[in-house]
Amino acid sequence: HFDPSGTLRSLYECDDVLHFVRRCLGLDVLHRYADPFGALNVSIMRDGDVLDWHFDMTDFVVSIALQSAESGGDFENAANIRGNDNDDQVVAAVLRGDAQERVRIEPMTPGTLMLFNGRRSMHRVTPIKGMTPRFVALLAYDTKPGTDSTDALKLSRYGRLPSGRLA
What we know:
Elements: H1 7-13, H2 15-25, E1 31-32, E2 40-45, E3 51-54, E4 60-67, E5 71-72, E6 75-78, H3 87-96, E7 103-106, E8 113-117, E9 122-125, E10 128-129, E11 134-142, H4 151-158
Antiparallel strand pairs: 1-11, 2-11, 3-9, 4-8, 4-11, 5-10, 6-7, 6-9
């Protein structure tokens, strides 16, 4: 949990930031992600950690790099491949490593602020190497109000459900 008056929580809850992100994305409407666990996170990855290819359950994520690993930890993104006519073939090609022209590699150096469409863009983080962990703040947004992740995802990712709910 984040301190309600802490810097990251204040940044995420700030309407000016929400409007800035909306304008950067060229959208008329944008909402904060309704998942109480997934809306705001700091991803901490240590030596040997990797995040494999996946799509998000929310439309957009703002990633803010806070600390780089000694080596690795690059963000790889196959932008906007879901929702196209041939998306199954493109996804399979990216997974096989046969579509490197579709993959953009972004080093996440401290201060990097990146906006991307996690629901339509398959992405991963390359293996972390070294004793310095990688810290990235993740702020999630969606074009529909009330968008939340599934209970199964909450249990697998966070090991629990919001207070008062049983698995």
